Structure formats: C-alpha cells, structure tokens
Amino acid sequence: MTKLKTRTHPYRGRTVRYEGRTPVGGFSSSINGLVQDGERVLVRASPVTLLEYEMHGPAGSYQMPSAMSGLGLIGDFVVYVSHRGFDGERTEEYMGDEVTKAQHAQDRLPELWLVDLSSGEVDLGEALQRRNSLLDPAPGLHRLHKGDFVPPCVEFSGYQLLYALSQLDRGDPPEVILEGLAVIVDGVIEALPAPEVSACGGAARVYLDGYGWRWLFPTADGTYSWQALRAVLDSTGAREDWEQLRTRFLPGATAAERALVRGHFAGLGDASLQTEVADFFASLAPVG
Q: Are strands 111-115 and 199-200 parallel, antiparallel or unpaired?
C-alpha cells in the first residue's frame, strides 16, 4: 500500500485533491478525492478509481492498465474523466465472438462526465459506484461524450503518478521520478500547471453528444445542473455562444484563450459569423 497525498496546481482558485492509501497494481487503485475552492469542499468522491487493470494473455497470465479516471476542472465546471483504450487485447477477447469484441471496442472509448454543482457539498460516492458497475449513475453525474477524445482539463495523470509512486516505493529519489510530472510542496505531490485547458475564463468548450462542439457558461453564483445547461443549449446556438464570449469572457482573456475561441468559430459553417468573429479579433490589441 502506498500513501498518496496530491493536488493539482490551483486553477481559478480551485484544486483537485486525492488523499489516502492506494495499492500499486491489483485490479484497481482507488482513493478519496476532493474538489476544493480555497478551503471549501465543493465535491467529495470516495472512492475514485484512478487506475483500472484488465487481465491479458491467453491464460490471463498478466495484467495491464486499461483505464485512467479522475476528477477534473474545465473553466468553472467540475468533470469526471475516464481515459480508456491504452491496453492491448484482453484475455476474454481471445476466444470471444464478434459481439464480445465490439463490446470491448466500445469500452475503450474515453468518456467525459459533468458533475452537477449545488450550493452545498456534493457527494459523488454513489454515482461513481453505479457508473463503475455499469449501472445508470445516480443523479448528479451526466455523461457528455463518449468518443475518441476528451477536451484538455486540469487533472492528474493517474497512470504516470501511480508509476511514480511505485518507483518511490523502491526508494528512488522523488525529485528524479517526479521530474516533468509534479513537484513536492510541503510533503504534498502537486501536479505542474496544465499546459492547456479547453476554456475561456469560466466558460468551458466541450464536445457534447447530440450537440457537437458547444460552450457551457457558468452562472453568477457558480452553481449549475445539466438539466438547466441543456435547456440553454436547446434554445441557443453559435451566435448566442459568441455574444456571451464576446461580452463576458473575452475581455481580459489570455492569448491562448483568444486562440481557442477564434479557432472554435473558424471551424463552423456560418460564413457571416466567421467574418464577424475574424473582424473582432483583428481589432484587438495584442495581449501584453
């Protein structure tokens, strides 16, 4: 068992934290997770399965990691991300029929889930347990997309981190093992700042099944539900997204955020809106 105490680099005043004891290896590596805004707990998830393993080889003679999951942050939204599909052919696939192989192909697709955020502390324990058991999750957790990718967000690289922990167990120097992954601050493993996040301020750019690429916009008090967000998506489109971004989020945006917004609208089929967006960005002074 390896003692784990980690956090993400602060992002918009929030951090994702994991703390507890987790096995390195086995069929899963689970630990208690928190999302905090300063000292206030927004989301509690006990446990979070950071890394899952599957049996491989014709006789199930060895294990390989099959999924890396965890809490994440995109803009002012809390998400649960499951990166899947980096294992080879599993034991039960060797003799499986076409239906079995198709099921495994689907299982390898990454997933992005939205966590509803209320004014009180959100407990995701039951919802995650039901999701991990392939049941419909409890209220509060909603799958946004299952496909080939998830948008960049603030999260831990569970696979790399657990590999680092296994090396630490062997007594290797932490400064060497964690180089390029994290730093140790007051005894806590802190991930390096995310190089890229799919957001402009508090607005999140995500791919939504049934909608394509859209923007999710935060409320004044920071609370939201998928039901309310979906109602907005159903009644608005690209032009409304642009007006929100132009008036609320682009003032003060970084160069990377500007590029993300500009690229988003350049990929749409609305020529007049593309011209409007291009003219707007041409009028802006460079970010200092």
A: unpaired
